[in-house]
Amino acid sequence: MSAPDLQQLTPSLHRLRIPTGPAHLLNCYLWLGADGVTLVDTGWPDSAELIADAIAALGRQRADVHRIVLTHFHEDHVGSAAEIAGWSAVEVVAGAGNAAYVSGEQRGPLPRLTELEKTIHAEIDESPHGPPCRVDRQVRDGDVLDFAGGARVIGVPGHTPGSIALYLPDADAVLTGDAVAEFDGQVILGVFNTDREAAARCLAKIAATNAQIAGFGHGEVVRVDAHERIRSATDPFAPSPQAN
Predict the structure, then answer these.
(1) Which stretches does DSSP call E strand in the chain?
(2) How confident is the model over 50-96, as pLDDT tens digits?
């Protein structure tokens, strides 16, 4: 078995690449704190053992997982959350607008694909939920979580209702979920949104963190002047003028 594809971003923050299947360069993130490990997103439903291997490679144990933060309810981000939540006394955190979708109480809305997005992803008639996972804490824009020097929740609705990003002061890093992505060397507006206009408005909000580092749900990490790259993000999959 190959070693987990880990990238150290700061002494405590690591990116784990999840084997992608149909998803472009899928990532989750691990924060190693004095109180344990915080995971931001959990990959596909079969990613738990890979995450356990990554935790072991970083000198911790699966029982050290203290917290899971889920940026939104899609299968490639919450897929292994329920399994990992059973490893120890894990707190599961999600945006208030996503919590019912994460727990399986409600079905989430479908993304509204542009014609260009349909060239990279077929239209679907069922929302891409992950396995249901309990949510212990619902958070909103401006809430602060007790890790990374006070991780600040940024409400970024648009990709899904209630999507969240996180700003980690101790790393000067923002973890964007799917609100922003890296694609072919460009920082871009995230794709497959339920409300594209709302998603676009969130770019300035994320850039306002002035973060040096940005970790995306999909794509390569930006390690210098990330806020400027996000502020000037491109939109290569925008609808054509004729579609408006």
Answers:
(1) 6-8, 13-18, 26-33, 36-40, 65-70, 91-95, 137-139, 144-145, 151-155, 164-168, 173-175, 180-183, 186-189, 213-215
(2) 999 999 999 999 999 999 999 999 999 999 999 999 999 999 999 99
Distance of CA 104 to the CA centre of its chain: 19
The tokens describing 22, both together, are 């149909």
- The CA distance from 76 to 70, in Å, is 11
Is the separation of the CB atoms in 70 and 42 below 8 Å? yes
pLDDT of residue 1: 55
Amino acid type, 212: Q
pTM of this prediction? 0.96
Domain annotation for the chain: domains and CATH numbers: 6-234 (3.60.15.10)
Residue with tokens 């008639």: 125
Beta bridge mates, 189: 180
